[in-house]
Amino acid sequence: MLFCAGFLTALHAQVPYFAGTAGDGNLYGYTSVKFRLGINQLESYTTFQYGITDYFATGTDLYTCNNHVYWGFLVRGGYKVNKWFGVGLQATPSFDLTDNFKFSYATIGLYMNGALIPNGNFFWCSNTWASIERDGSNSFNQWWYLGYCFDFGKHGSLTPMVGCIHSWKFDAKPDMAAGFYYSYGAWNFYAWGNDFFKSNPRVVIGIDFCIPTKKQKKDEDA
User: Fold this and answer.
1) How many structural domains are present in the chain?
2) Contact 28, 45 (CB under 8 A)
3) pLDDT of residue 13
4) Whole-model pTM?
5) Domain contains 2
6) Distance from CA of residue 11 to its chain's centroid?
7) How many CA atoms lie within 13 A of 8 on its CB side?
8) Is 161 helix (H, G, I), strand (E, B) or coil?
9) Which domain, by its residues, includes 162?
10) Among 18, 38, 149, 204, which one is least packed by beta carbons within 10 Å?
11) What is the pLDDT of residue 216?
12) Consecutive H or E run containing 216
């Protein structure tokens, strides 16, 4: 088998992705660990992305599971039409570092989100993921989420979200996913999960940041 046992569900229980990109000149980074309770298996995912314009970014990512390591290169675009709707698209071919850097899979993500009330605190989010794999076992999955942001002013904000994951092949039962993230300054801290009613629930712990480049900081200080 080309991929580790958890890869077919690797897109499940990740934090939701939103339409926007890092922003012009900004550096975005995210890292997470994933595990199932009662199973001795860890997954990790790390990405760094740089905003070339307000609507386009490029970057790299690294996915590990057991003895497998996959290195990907990504391009991402996104546009906020208005507060009610934004749309983004990401493409990432990935290569197996444990198998002579052979092409292993490519993922394509379609991200949509928008406000449900005027202040934007109550919102919806949709992530559609297509995975094209070297062995032909392709997948096409969907997340639907609702979230609410509790704003604490200078103390940051807390955003719980709940939703549903399913395959567009409808070859398995839909699954509930839920979690939250706490935002403070340029940082977000995530706790996520799914398969809550099964014997080995899946848990994700993550952190991300988005910061301006040094050049921008110098320009602002000038």
Assistant:
1) 1
2) no
3) 55
4) 0.89
5) no
6) 8
7) 10
8) strand
9) 7-221
10) 38
11) 52
12) helix 214-221
Please report the beta strands in the chain, taking only residues with DSSP state E, as ranges in sequence order.
26-36, 42-53, 56-65, 68-82, 85-96, 102-115, 122-133, 139-148, 150-151, 157-167, 175-184, 187-194, 202-212
102, 95 Cβ separation under 8 angstroms: yes
CATH number at residue 179: 2.40.160.40
Question: What residue type is assigned to position 77 of the chain?
Answer: G
Does 219 score more than 70 pLDDT? no
Pairing of the two strands 175-184 and 202-212: unpaired
The first and second tokens of residue 195, run together, are 């398969």
| Residue keyed to tokens 């760094």 | 48
DSSP 41: -
Cα separation, 90 vs 111, in Å, equals 8
Question: What is d(CA 116, CA 209) in angstroms, rounded to the nearest whole number?
Answer: 26
Residue 139 corresponds to which tokens in the numbers above? 């997948």
The overall longest dimension of the chain from CA atoms, in Å, is 58
